[in-house]
Design a protein that fits this description.
Helix content is 29%, strand content 21%. The protein is elongated, with a radius of gyration of 41 Å. The strands form three sheets. Strands 3-2-6-4-5 form a five-stranded mixed β-sheet, with helices on one face. A five-stranded mixed β-sheet has the order 8-7-11-9-10, with helices on one face. The chain is built from six helices and twelve strands. The protein folds into three domains: 3-56, no CATH class; 76-175, 2-Layer Sandwich (Alpha-Beta Plaits), CATH 3.30.70; 181-279, Alpha-Beta Plaits (2-Layer Sandwich), CATH 3.30.70. It is α/β, with parallel strands linked by helices and 299 residues long. The chain crosses the membrane at residues 34-55.
Length: 299
Amino acid sequence: MTRDTVHKELLERARAQEELTDDQIWRRYQFRHLAAFITIPAVLLGTASIATAYGTGLMSNEPAKVACQPVVVPAPDPASFHIKVLNTSGVNGAAHAVGKDLTRRGFTVVEASTAPRTLYVKAPVRIYYGKAGLDQALLAAQTVAGAELEFDGRSGTSISFVLGAEFTTMLPAPPPKPPAQKSYKVNVYNATWKPGLAKAAMAELVARGFTPGKQGNDPDHSFLPDDVAVIRHGPDADLAAAQVARHIKGAVLSEVPRNNMVIDVVLGNKFEQVTPSAELPPREAVRKDPPPTVSRPCD
């Protein structure tokens, strides 16, 4: 449509309504076309956007689904279930080393051996568990980075802790707490010519809460002319031995190859008496840790 045509169609109408020049009439016409050009696509675009929102559920009346969150629950007592440690890593002795580490952390390890040849695990550790053993498996998994869990339908709370090809080391354990005095036995042996020393020392240690074991002459026939006492212990009983040594001033610790929590107190020629209670060194403060927890994964 040309400018002349617009003039012809609108001139009479515009003049009848208000006084307008030809240029004003032409500008009004251009404005109306421009408004239509902008408005119609905007309406179409808005309609399509609303339809898309409804189609994708953004404008649905249904409540939004809450993302699943792991459930944090108190961890089971590590000593309350059995662990079988199996080795597929190819490193000789790894199962026994890990078994000792888990034992020092308070777990109950009932077996440490090589896995059957048919079993292969690539991950650092794979933990097999049953329906009642999920929390137990989650707790054990906290000892190794990259541990994976696999349900095998077993009954009870026992788990299998299988070392895989990528296993290198356990995560650092928190410093162990001193064991309860009732959790180990103390043998008292006399390695001197003085009679009655073992009996007197044992009576005093028992009065202080230690669990008595054997007493008498030293079965190893030690000769300790320059020692107050030597306290023999296995690798897992070092903290227990240190507790006993606190009661015998001048005693020295000696680690021996044994796999139990039995302490031998071997009295030497310089032993006179168990340290009086008033002269005992102060106890180390017992660390108070928050109760351990595990996070159950979403179903």
